[in-house]
Automatic annotation (TrEMBL):
UniProt-recorded name of the protein: 4-hydroxymandelate oxidase
Active site: 255 (proton acceptor)
Binding site for glyoxylate: 128, 163, 255
Keywords recorded for this protein, A-Z: Flavoprotein, FMN, Oxidoreductase
Family: Belongs to the FMN-dependent alpha-hydroxy acid dehydrogenase family.
Gene Ontology MF annotations: FMN binding; oxidoreductase activity, acting on CH-OH group of donors
The protein's required cofactors: FMN
Amino acid sequence: MTGLSVTDFAAEARAVLDTPVWDWLDGGAEREWTVAGNRAALDRVALVPRVLADVSACDTKTTLVESGANLPVAIAPVAYHRLFHPDGELATARAAATAGVPFTVGTLSSVGLDELAATGAVLWFQLYWLRDRGRLLDLVRRAEEAGVEALVVTVDVPFMGRRLRDAANGMTLPPTVRAALLDEGSSGRAHRRTKDASAIASHTAELFSPAVTWHDVAWLRERTRLPLVLKGVLDPQDAVRAAAEGARAVVVSNHGGRQLDQAVPAAMALPAVAEAVAGLPDARFQVLLDSGIRSGSDILAALALGASGVLLGRPVIWGLAAGGESGCARVLSLLETELRNALGLAGCPDLRSATRLRVASMPYFPGKTP
């Protein structure tokens, strides 16, 4: 591992992963317009630095939802980490524990909750809305028993978007990888190759309910003590409704461009969402940003646009593929270095001052980041 920036790990991951697995990680829906748009939107954010501030020790510690964090970062849910490294989520959770940031365990995790709790990481749990409410509540109870600190409900996947790379590759789980939190054998369809179709998409179509509504969110709120985070919100009205239904935070996200192609880029949607919730009675309500974060300066831009923190997905998996736990740890360490550097050069001794930075917009120009 020779990367000097977070994005260097993309090439290292690409070099070691089979094409179908790389495409599953790297790709998006249909034309992948939104994947590119997430980066374009962040690349257009121009920060206006302040000067003559004491930045000899920039403080990056914060609270995300109700979890302490050394950085305004949580590891985003990504399914089946064992596709990328034999240690899978164990490696990423250990790296998160070392970095002092929350790790979000996915419904489609390839490692069990008890094993992940034993790593000492602060855990959040991501919940896809299953057709079987009994199984859904069982997952919630197991998460509570494992000491999870937040429940992240993905609300933008009534069914999986049309991911053409996966269909062309006939994306299929290998026999060694399974959905460890679901019933034994429940991921069987994900192992059966079908021409011109993703077996993983077929599997999730069996599991996920496309009929979930705000009434279901209220139903869940009454049945768990965990703070709810709704992930996949882009419209300010939905953010306000989430707070009214008792959520503690929303994640402004388009699922990394993997659901609705031509959905608004997440960073473009963020300011309006942040403004809409700014006057809510619950001052603790937070807005997080997911989709496209690749650097410490991206995190600073997210804070300036109104986020309390960010979720980091693909870059952590690049590190996992490139070097297991040490690769993940290196990515997170580089991100911390980049964030501290960006804070200092912007005249921000802490995260609160970052939220007061002025931002401007520049014409998009092609960069080097993937």
